[in-house]
Amino acid sequence: MSAAHIPEFPVRSASVVLAQSNIDTDQIIPARFLSTTERKGLGRFAFNDWRWRDDGSANPDFAFNQAHNNGRAVLLAGRNFGCGSSREHAPWALRDLGLQVVVSSEIADIFRNNALKNGVLPVVLPEAVVQDLMTRPDDVLTFDIVARELRTPDGTVHAFPLEAFARTCLLEGVDEMGFLLARGADIQTYEDTHHAR
Amino acid sequence: MTARPPRTLFDKLWDAHIVTPESDAAPAVLYIDLHLIHEVTSPQAFTELRARGLVPRRPDRTKATMDHSTPTLPAGPDGRLPYASDASEKQVDTLARNCAQFGIELFDMSSDQRGIVHVIAPEQGFTLPGMTIVCGDSHTSTHGAFGALAFGIGTSEVGNVLATQCLLQRRPKTMSITVDGPLAPGVGAKDVTLHAIGVIGVNGGTGHVIEYRGSTIEAMDMEQRMTLCNMSIEAGARAGMVAPDDTTFAWIARTPRGPKGAEFDAAVARWRELRTDDGARFDTEVRIDAADIRPTLTWGTHPGTAIGVDVPVPAATDAAEQKGQDYMRVVAGQSLTGMPVDVVFVGSCTNGRLRDMREVAEVLRGRHVSAGVRMLVVPGSEIVKREAEAEGIDVIVREAGAEWREPGCSMCIAMNGDLVASGQLAVSTSNRNFEGRQGPGARTLLASPTTAAWAAVRGVVADPRELFDDRREVA
Ligand code: SF4
What we know:
The structure holds 2 protein chains of 2 kinds. By secondary structure, chain A is α/β, with parallel strands linked by helices. Chain A has helices spanning about 25-30, 50, 90-95, 110-115, 125-135, 165-170, 175-180, 185-195, and strands at about 10-15, 15-20, 75, 100-105, 120-125, 140-145, 150, 155-160. A 4-stranded antiparallel sheet of chain A has the order 1-6-7-8, with no helix packed on it. In chain A, strands 2-3-4-5 form a 4-stranded parallel sheet. The longest helix of chain A is centred in the last third of the chain and has 10 residues, at about 185-195. Chain B is globular and about 60 Å long. Residues about 470-475 of chain B have low confidence and may be disordered. Chains A and B meet through helix 4, helix 6, helix 7 and helix 8 of A and helix 2, helix 3, helix 5, strand 8 and helix 11 of B. Iron/sulfur cluster binds near residues 139 and 349 of chain B.
């Protein structure tokens, strides 16, 4: 919501793949790490129970622990990513982990909203396209939010939906609270005409 | 009168709360009548408010409670509450300080009306038909049971509502789920909602607001309707709702803080208009025959994996489902009945109300929890707890060998120290069976209070219809 959350677009990055469908917010950040009053520093808890073994060591089979995935800013995820809770800690944790784009064939509503407010671009593409991208995770993908398209190294272009307001917010850092505060007179009029209900 | 096109209940609620309409360039500005906050998702919003030098626009339309991180055991001999961690206690204290500073009514740990946010707002009469209601919590959909448009928001949006009492929203799509016919004995609202999620899928409601309709829904009491609407988010829906009727008005008439006298009568006259007009269309329409609904449980790691208690676990259709079956240690073709149970949890905003406590007591009366099963019964609020105790339910629960706890979210989210150990199988009346939701490695079967209590008695997952079957000898 403030300028600090706005990533640089376009994003150019290879991808990390989590092919599983229905990755829920309890996997993205388990509830026991929500006892915080801060937004910062949640990246180490991202995917905690998949990423770390009981003894605290890294699970070598988990994508985010594999050296070749270091520094990648794009997550390719199975269908219905981000279902579950409204915790904004989920995109806070992903952003802190270095992710700027999440691609899936379906992204849950509240997660999507929360992601957009934190400079994480939710990209919905057809399942077949996502599956195809998952076979080539080392390709450097370009996410151009001005054109609302994803370009692959072989020149293929996939348009993705991104509503105009969200795009403006991502590009220019328009903050929603500021936008709403500027509607103060309209809000006052509404309150005056729709008295106590 | 000029004819206007027929509108759904959702359309009426949406239209009545538009401050500025949506355009291609910007979403609608939607006015929020009631904002509920709790300790977990609000601290960063207050920080943002302070950083901008703002104060809440309508503290009178904001109500706060503490529920997620709070202990369900009473204070120790030193008078201190047994918080799971210093961080939890700090989070609770932070909420108290924020509410004190900004003049927000708070149901704190000393309040005799505190409880889970989605239990206490309807109980107090804060939740009313026709309202827009939001909370930094996905199960805000519960309040839709009263004919309100109620949905969960993130912490940035909590900040937006505190600052402006408004949200930026795109109009969602609408879905009707019509359920007709009587429910069989042993089948309740939880089974209806699990069945419905099984039918439309864990993402079947994405982008939609669901209106539940039909004779089955009309016959439900408010507590059942809340259970139903509560789980809407588990199908991915933004919100769930039921049109208000005499059942709704009778509930509100009994609340301490709802409108009274002439104000109540005038409100009821308005609320009667809150129905979907004949001929109004939904973007998606689903029909369910109540006769098809059995006692329903989940076998996997999301609520869409719902099956009738006597139905074999289906074959996994993809790698994620296979992973879910492996995690749950179930195999295709097996029955859930007979699986040994370690923990039974009754509570949460889904099934932590008086009716749920009564259903559990009905099963536990004169019976005992099976050896080796740990059963926790956690009322959703102080009021639920008192009313249940007035009926002797706490005694029945304790005599059966189960624990009767203080109100809170408890094992639903396992943030307060109440958790299921790794590998243990829990039958839970809560709403999410995600991996690790009830504790790292915990395996969760979602079920109704009756099914859960019967599993506690039998020590294994069992068909609660046994309780209603005169021809069968029961334990
Ligand atoms: S009971 Fe569970 S679902 Fe309900 S508000 Fe508490 S944590 Fe959330």
